[in-house]
Amino acid sequence: MAANGDADRTLWATEYGLPTSVVAWQQVTGSGPMFICTTRDTATGAFDDEANVGIFTTNWTPNWRPRPSPR
């Protein structure tokens, strides 16, 4: 962002799903708040991506796990 003259701005994530790594987001220079799209999946394992964006599965099992930071 600094290369584009936006070093004083922060990025805000307004939605995230299963592929998002919170650890990676926290390490991004200029990262700001993150808003959760939904707390619980509506149909864990369903083909529809929108049914799998919760931070908990349908039966309230945590749907996150530590992941290594991408390099």
Fold topology:
Layout: E1 11-13, H1 22-27, E2 31-34, E3 38-40, E4 54-56
Parallel strand pairs: 1-2, 3-4
Please tell me what the overall shape is: elongated
The overall pLDDT average reads 73
Low-confidence stretches: none
Order of helices and strands: EHEEE
In the sheet with the most strands, the strands line up as 1-2
How does the major sheet shape up? 2 strands, parallel
Number of domains: 1
- Summed up, the helix count is 1
Radius of gyration: 14 Å
Report the end-to-end length measured between terminal Cα atoms.
Answer: 18 Å
Sheet-strand content, in percent, reads 15-25%
Number of strands: 4
Question: What's this model, at a glance?
Answer:
By secondary structure, this protein is mainly beta. 8% of the residues lie in helices and 18% in strands. Strands 1-2 form a two-stranded parallel ribbon. A two-stranded parallel sheet has the order 3-4.
